[in-house]
From TrEMBL, chain A:
The chain crosses the membrane at residues 6-27, 60-82, 94-114, 147-166, 231-262, 268-288. It is found in: Cell membrane. One of its GO terms (molecular function) is transmembrane transporter activity. It holds the Pfam family BPD_transp_2. Keywords: Amino-acid transport, Cell membrane, Membrane, Transmembrane, Transmembrane helix, Transport. It is a multi-pass membrane protein. It comes from freshwater metagenome. One of its GO terms (biological process) is amino acid transport. GO terms for cellular component: plasma membrane. The lineage of its organism: unclassified sequences, metagenomes, ecological metagenomes. This is Unannotated protein. Belongs to the binding-protein-dependent transport system permease family. LivHM subfamily. Its main location: membrane. PANTHER family: ABC TRANSPORTER PERMEASE PROTEIN, BRANCHED-CHAIN AMINO ACID TRANSPORT SYSTEM PERMEASE PROTEIN LIVH.
UniProtKB/TrEMBL annotation, chain B:
Residues 3-236 form the ABC transporter domain. GO terms for molecular function: ATP binding; ATP hydrolysis activity; branched-chain amino acid transmembrane transporter activity. CDD domains: ABC_TM1139_LivF_branched. This is Unannotated protein. It comes from freshwater metagenome. It holds the Pfam family ABC_tran. GO terms for biological process: L-amino acid transport. The keyword Transport applies. Belongs to the ABC transporter superfamily. Keywords: Amino-acid transport, ATP-binding, Nucleotide-binding, Transport.
TrEMBL record, chain C:
The chain crosses the membrane at residues 36-53, 82-106, 113-134, 161-181, 211-232, 252-273, 294-312. Keywords: Cell membrane, Membrane, Transmembrane, Transmembrane helix. Pfam families: BPD_transp_2. InterPro entries: ABC_transp_permease, LivM-like. It is found in: Cell membrane. GO terms for molecular function: branched-chain amino acid transmembrane transporter activity. It is a multi-pass membrane protein. The keyword Glycoprotein does not apply. GO terms for cellular component: plasma membrane. This is Unannotated protein. It comes from freshwater metagenome. PANTHER family: HIGH-AFFINITY BRANCHED-CHAIN AMINO ACID TRANSPORT SYSTEM PERMEASE, HIGH-AFFINITY BRANCHED-CHAIN AMINO ACID TRANSPORT SYSTEM PERMEASE PROTEIN LIVM.
Length: 302, 236, 331
């Protein structure tokens, strides 16, 4: 019983972090119709910004916004100077379909090697603001700690803020219109270029939070070669696909599903399936419900 | 308040699609632009709304230069463009498509008020607000496209072949609505059409484009009466 | 006429092989080793070109397919004492089988979905190798093809032997591939790449031809995996990192994914990059951190630059420029 509860709690916490990553992927997909494989790399870089803030100012609550702002700035920069140029150049030709994929992979490689050469390949440490020692329930210790509670609450608040932003402002509509039909969006008075940059920045900030939380939720260390980073790399994409790629709610559900499934597989089946489990989940989803759990039907072919 | 186009020339690469075109449209006037395929009608409209770049000439609406502005700025000067081929966003709902037109005005209340106006003009849209636009019929889509443009509260409407691919009855209905808009709301309209007869019947004035050049201009009646225009564009 | 061209091409390959053979007697050991690496990369890159250029798919899972080939060759050699030549065939078959599975999945996926799925595979699969004792865990397995036969002479070195095997394998597989691509299959792939719907209407089963593309591509990748582990001497999870998949993709894009004829460009570049990085690092007196990361940085930067500026590869670029000039002359 206690094991079941623990598995659930671990899965939900991890899942909420994957959800943030998935939201980042969805935001970029919505604004430019590109799957940004460099998203995890950008999250990595932002986490290092957060780490620097930690070192100098010694407060997690300063480090987190620093990471977010840094992540948003990096994303905006990439969209402004790189993606615009790329999408213009690769609009036609034999590899036009795969050029953005290849380019974001290249970006991932560049960011990885840059962070490695600046901060070294070894782990950096970020300590969470509250303890990660589990609450006790009678004689048992739960796998759920004040830190995990904090992560969960923060993610919920962020997701609510984001969806509020989308529903109560015209921003969500602008983002989608710009993605589906830039020309009609422009004729309707939307500054499409600005909207795209905005979408990327929001994604960058969201990924930054995921990176920071992934670090403190693990053993507090992070590096380009760490398992935490590899997990971010695949989980965001997979969770986003589970959710149908086009929906924020879907991204959250996708993240939670992924987190729970991984957690249960590790606890009840075999811990060596750690890395292959996400892949299998992805395949199952793609085969059984190719439109995602909540998804646009035609998205798969886009 | 008028649209002034003077010596407008537009190229697509080496092709000269619009060649030294001049005309003017007064407020509240409905002008039909007719001409055969490839005459440069679409290019002309796209240039006026900022989607294409002109090589030469000038175009102003109420004194605002239209040639060196971006589309998202031009719409703020009261120029709304309904582009060729049922310009709606299929992935969005009818309601969202309409809201899109008013999105730059930022005033939510005003926007929902004008949504009510649009659904009064096109009741069929009102019944389908929650539906995705790709579930609409061709005629409904064209109504939605016009509705979206009207949501911007334009002073001048640029319409590119609203009759494209629609049944005669629907075409008549849409033409009638366009005529009403111009008459009752004082809207200025530039109507590009292949359906020359239908367009000229509701228009005040007409412009015939041929290979990018203005071939004939005049009142709609005089064009209908012109034997050359009749032979070339009206088919009798 | 056609027959003549075909046999001509075969002759060309044989002549090329002979030149390589002569060359390998002239240069020093390091160069011979690099020659072997180039041959291995030629095979690996052509497997990606086959997939990306001719069927319009991006797979990041080729690192995993290389691993399948390498492991199965090593297991066959170590556990069952299979003759070396057969080991390579087993590598091809095993990877091709993996390719069928991947292809069945891929036939239903397009663009970013496939890329993401194979990315997850590339990260996941090598770590799975840790779990089976027969695969040797983190240390991996030894893959030893033995000494060169004595009949080749006393001073015939091990590296030269590697080079011979790899170069021969490369020549044979390039010859086979270029024939496959000119066949009906190859034409179907290209049709599917540029206009999936049109190809379907023309009666081409795009699903089946995608699976076939994956299978052949995977088999070729498996061969290169086995050869790669031959030159290293061992097979281990760390020999097939994500970075390998990235490098191969870069090699393919550099070569130009729409044709096999530029494949040497990518292979030579991949082998040259570590040396170039060394030179640069020495020149600017970089710290160790930078030195170790420089090759990766160069590879990724090259990938981006190529996609931006020479998206169809240097060969295609050259061709279209020539075609343009011809047109101008005619006018
Ligand atoms: N994007 C483009 N690139 C190159 N040429 C173009 C482009 N758009 C239009 N043209 C050319 O410009 C000329 C005018 O085209 P345009 O679309 O303006 O004609 P149109 O009068 O609207 O025709 P239709 O009645 O068929 O819509 C044609 O010769 C066309 O081929
Ligand atoms: Mg037209």
């Amino acid at each position: 019983m206690i094991q079941l509860i623990n598995t659930l709690l671990i899965g939900i916490t991890a899942g909420s972090i994957y959800a943030l990553m998935a939201i980042a992927i969805v935001l970029v997909w919505r604004s430019t119709r590109v799957i940004n494989f460099a998203q995890a790399g950008m999250a990595l870089l932002s986490t290092y910004f957060g780490y620097e803030a930690m070192v100098h100012l010694n407060s997690f609550w300063i480090a987190l916004p620093v990471a977010m702002i840094g992540g948003a700035a990096v994303a905006a920069f990439i969209e402004l100077v790189f993606m615009r140029f790329l999408l213009k150049r690769s609009a036609h030709g034999a590899i036009s379909g795969v050029a953005p994929i290849i380019a974001t992979l290249g970006l991932l490689g560049v960011i990885r090697s840059l962070t490695s050469s600046i901060w070294g390949g070894q782990d950096v440490r970020i300590v969470g603001p509250v303890s990660n020692v589990g609450y006790s329930l009678g004689a048992n210790t739960l796998a759920f700690s004040p830190l995990k509670l904090l992560i969960l609450v923060t993610v919920i608040v962020l997701v609510l803020l984001l969806s509020l932003l989308f529903q109560k402002s015209n921003m969500g509509l602008s983002l989608r219109a710009s993605a589906f039909s830039p020309e009609i969006a422009r004729l309707s008075g939307i500054r499409v270029n600005g909207v795209r940059t905005l979408g990327w920045s929001l994604a960058g900030a969201s990924g930054a939070v995921a990176g920071m939380f992934q670090t403190v939720n693990g053993n507090g260390s992070f590096s380009p070669d760490s398992i935490e980073f590899s997990l971010l790399l695949v989980s965001g994409f997979i969770a986003a696909v589970i959710g149908g790629l086009d929906s924020l709610v879907g991204a959250v559900i996708g993240g939670l599903v992924l987190g729970l499934v991984i957690s249960f597989v590790l606890m009840y089946i075999n811990s060596s399936l750690f890395f292959i489990a996400p892949f299998v989940i992805l395949l199952i989803v793609l085969f059984v419900r190719p439109q995602g759990i909540i998804g646009a039907k035609a998205a798969r072919r886009a | 308040m008028s649209l002034e186009v003077s010596q407008l020339t537009v190229h697509h690469g080496a092709i000269c699609a619009v060649n030294d075109v001049s005309f003017s449209v007064k407020k509240g006037e409905l002008v039909a632009v007719i001409g055969s395929n490839g005459a440069g009608k679409t290019t002309l409209l796209r240039t006026l709304s900022g989607l294409n770049k002109a090589t030469h000439g000038s175009a102003t609406w109420n004194g605002h230069n239209l040639l060196h502005s971006k589309p998202e700025r031009i719409v703020r000067h009261g120029v709304s463009h309904v582009s060729e081929g049922k310009a709606v966003i299929p992935e969005l709902t009818v309601s969202e498509n309409l809201e899109l037109g008013a999105i730059w005005r930022k005033n939510k209340k005003e926007s929902s008020a004008s949504k009510a106006e649009i659904t009064a003009i096109f009741p069929r849209l009102g019944e389908r607000l929650k539906q995705r636009a790709d579930t609409l019929s061709g005629g409904e889509r064209q109504m939605l496209a016009i509705g979206r443009a009207l949501m911007s509260k334009p002073e001048i409407l640029l319409l590119d072949e609203p009759s494209l691919g629609l049944a005669p009855l629907v075409v008549e209905q849409i033409f009638q609505t366009i005529r009403d808009l111009a008459t009752s709301m004082g809207l200025t309209v530039v109507l590009v059409e292949q359906n020359a007869m239908g367009a000229l019947k509701i228009a005040d004035n007409g412009i015939v484009l041929n290979l990018g050049k203005v071939a004939v201009t005049g009142t709609a009646q005089s064009l209908i009466a012109d034997p050359q225009v009749r032979a070339a564009y009206l088919g009798y | 006429m056609h027959r003549f061209q075909k046999s001509n091409k075969l002759l060309l390959f044989i002549a090329f092989g002979f030149i390589l053979f002569l060359l390998s007697n002239r240069v020093d050991e390091l160069r011979v080793y690099q020659g072997a690496s180039i041959a291995v990369y030629v095979i690996a890159i052509s497997s990606i070109i086959l997939l990306t250029g001719y069927s319009g798919q991006v797979s990041l899972g080729h690192g995993a397919l290389l691993a399948i080939g390498a492991y199965s060759a090593a297991v066959a050699r170590n556990e069952f004492n299979v003759p070396v030549v057969l080991c390579f065939f087993i590598a091809v078959l095993a990877a091709a089988f993996g390719g069928v599975l991947l292809g069945v999945a891929a036939a239903r996926l397009t663009g970013p979905y496939l890329a993401g799925a194979t990315l997850a595979l590339a990260i996941g699969l090598p770590s799975l190798a840790n779990q089976f004792t027969i695969l040797g865990g983190e240390q991996g397995l030894i893959f030893d093809v033995g000494f060169p036969p004595l009949s080749l002479g006393e001073d015939f070195t091990q590296y030269k032997w590697f080079f011979w095997i790899s170069a021969l394998a490369a020549l044979i597989s390039m010859w086979l591939l270029s024939n496959v691509l000119r066949s009906r299959f190859g034409q179907n792939w290209r049709a599917g790449r540029s206009h999936e719907v049109a190809a379907q209407l023309a009666g081409i089963n795009t699903g089946r031809s995608k699976i076939l593309a994956f299978t052949i591509s995977a088999g070729v990748a498996g061969l290169s995996g086995a050869l790669l582990s031959m030159t290293i001497g061992t097979v281990s999870p760390s020999a097939f990192p994500l970075a390998l998949s990235f490098s191969l993709l870069t090699g393919a894009v550099l070569s130009g994914v729409t044709t096999l004829s530029g494949v040497m460009i990518g292979a030579v570049t991949l082998v040259a990059i570590p040396e170039i990085a060394d030179v640069i690092a020495n020149r600017i007196g970089a710290s160790e951190r930078i030195t170790t990361n420089l090759p990766g940085l160069i590879v990724s930067t090259l990938l981006i630059i190529t996609v931006l500026f020479v998206p169809h590869g240097p060969v295609e670029q050259h061709r279209s420029r020539k075609a343009k000039k011809l047109l101008q002359k005619k006018n």
